[in-house]
Design a protein that fits this description.
Length: 576
């Protein structure tokens, strides 16, 4: 979930990429079309960025929509949001510079959200960008949203105390991965980072040292949400974000329940994507995937307007799949979300040990542990099949004997950290069993799932292995390989490179490929994917998600978004 490379020098972008899975990912259990085509454009007509959002057939206003999830959301502060559930919850209470119109079938259009358009490339060189803020956009207290509050929101993302969110806009403004060292937010709260200005109340201006043609896409993430300085609660904003969207958080019993009610100052005429049909959204935390699925199967009165975020539990997949009525209350789509077993190369510096880890993994067993072919598709590459230029290869075919011979008598003792949710524990046990058959000694360390993401992003974390997932913001290897494996971006915490690999030759390749014409980049990313696996083995690719979630009989309008592959609620409604 991060930025892309320079994709185009003009104001129009058209993408067309096959979301095709390799043949081994096809199965007879699932009818999900993993071979579908995805396409996208940047809107050039300002009318596309205006509201109201198109009406949803059969929808009506009213009711309470409930989402149940096992663990709480890591961050609610928009500048810190970077988890899948956070990214698809934030649009309820926050608006961004740009956003996606999405049909849920792979066809997307980038439009202005708070901005009148998806941005103006002032000098046609991608170094200077301007966004004009719409008239009539307001916060939950009725005060107007101007360029000043958007700029402040971006500025506070420079604060190292507010780590966790995407960092590319900060890095581009600072022209340095160590952006917080180039500009100190705490010492300059009344000013803005160099390169970010507000010429007037409607205009936000970015000036970069290098071209960044993908700024309109980067601006679609919650880091560009506005905030008045007087409402900045620092780290406590996680518990009470200040709304610029159609709903406001009115009650938050942390880790138990969140209640959102309407923001009466939200104007549908300014919003191109949010319908805001329900009167309320409720998030309930605690029930695991099995409990969620059983509740939704029963479809009791309290759960008819409920969605289970954690998906159909693996133990109940066969039951749901075998009942046409239950399957009619599921959402199933391919996703760009790729899972891997990340190897902390600081703690596991021996390449042969990392290669043996790859040989030892039984992917069919991992697929089964993750819920079967209805939920995931095996993956042997760092880039998922949804990536432009994807090429299938398997650098380390599963082979326990090969893993043993690669270890050459070594018996590495490694610590695998997992979250405390039930699904992670099942997968962790599967990994442990695989690796111990090859001669590894694995200790599992369980930590709270809601903090695992932040903890593994700390450079000095004490673990050797962890399960990671990544979904690019749009289908380019530039949004995957440099983000996850460029060692020049490593810092004390908030790292996306959780393998902590830093190889000069590979870093140079990132620079070379990023400098190519966009049309020439795709096959080069595929080649680099294979080279990274063979020369560095920084992770063990596991599988790509197939989203398989269930909801109650009164849920309508929910779709699996084409960007991250998770349930989106911008069109949700409660059937009356």
């Amino acid at each position: 979930m991060r930025s892309r490379a320079v994709l185009a020098l003009g104001s129009v972008l058209a993408l067309s990429v096959a979301l095709g899975a390799c043949s081994e990912n096809k199965n007879t259990e699932s009818d999900v079309d993993t071979d579908r085509q995805s396409s996208g454009v940047i809107a050039t007509d300002p009318k596309d960025s205006m509201g109201p959002a198109p009406a949803v057939s059969g929808a009506s206003k009213g009711g309470t929509f409930t989402v149940i999830r096992q663990t709480k959301i890591s961050h609610m502060d928009p500048q810190r949001v970077y988890s899948f559930v956070g990214l698809n919850t934030a649009p309820l209470y926050a608006r961004f510079l740009t956003t996606w119109k999405d049909d849920g079938k792979g066809h997307v259009v980038l439009v202005g959200d708070l901005a009148e358009t998806p941005g103006v490339n002032v000098n046609k060189d991608c170094k200077v960008w301007e966004f004009k803020i719409k008239d009539g956009v307001k916060f939950e207290d009725g005060s107007a949203i101007t360029s000043k509050e958007v700029a402040y929101g971006i500025a506070r993302s420079f604060d190292p105390d507010l780590a966790g969110g995407p960092t590319y806009i900060q890095e581009w403004l600072a022209d340095d991965a160590a952006f917080d060292k180039k500009w100190d937010f705490k010492a300059n709260k009344t000013s803005l980072p160099p390169g970010l200005t507000t010429p007037d109340a409607k205009t936000l201006r970015f000036e970069f040292a290098k071209p960044h043609c993908d700024l309109p896409f980067a601006a679609s993430l919650p880091a560009t949400a506005p905030l008045p300085p007087a409402k900045d609660l620092g780290v406590d904003l996680d518990n009470k974000p200040f709304s610029s969207g159609p709903y406001k958080l009115v009650k938050n019993t942390v880790g138990v329940e969140m209640l959102f009610e309407r923001n009466e100052h939200w104007d549908a005429n300014t919003d191109p994507v949010r319908n805001a049909y329900p009167d309320k959204f409720v998030y309930q935390f605690g029930p695991d995937a099995e409990a969620q699925t059983n509740r939704l199967i029963a479809d009791g009165d309290l759960d008819k307007a409920t969605l289970g975020w954690n998906g159909v539990d693996s133990s109940l997949v066969a039951k749901v799949a075998g009942d046409a009525a239950l399957m009619g209350r599921t959402l199933r789509e391919p996703t760009p979300s790729a899972w891997r077993l990340s190897i902390n190369t600081q703690r596991v510096p021996d390449l042969s040990v990392r290669q043996a880890l790859n040989y030892a993994i039984d992917r069919p067993g991992m697929v089964k542990a993750a819920g079967g072919d209805l939920k995931v598709a095996a993956l042997t590459t760092l880039m998922p099949p949804s990536t432009l230029g994807f090429k299938k290869f398997d650098a380390y075919p599963a082979d326990i004997e090969k893993a043993k011979s690669t270890l050459a008598g070594k018996t590495p003792e490694l610590v695998l950290v997992i979250g405390d949710d039930s699904g992670a524990q099942e997968l962790g046990t599967q990994v442990k069993n695989n690796l111990e058959k090859a001669g590894f000694k694995i200790t599992i360390k369980v930590i709270p799932a809601d903090s695992k993401l932040d903890e593994t992003k700390k450079k000095d974390n004490p673990w050797d292995l962890y399960l990671d997932s990544w979904a690019a913001d749009w289908p380019s290897g530039a949004a995957l390989l440099p983000v996850l494996f460029d060692g020049r971006t490593i810092k004390a915490e908030g790292n996306s490179n959780t393998s902590y690999v830093n190889n000069d030759a590979i870093n140079a390749e990132f620079d070379r490929v990023l400098a190519l014409d966009p049309a020439a980049q795709a096959p080069e990313w595929a080649k680099l994917d294979e080279r990274i696996m063979k020369e560095l083995a920084p992770a063990v690719p596991l599988y790509a998600d197939v989203m398989f979630v269930m909801h109650g009989s009164k849920v309508g309008g929910v779709y699996i978004d084409s960007i991250f592959g998770y349930p989106a609620f911008t069109r949700a409604f409660v059937k009356q």
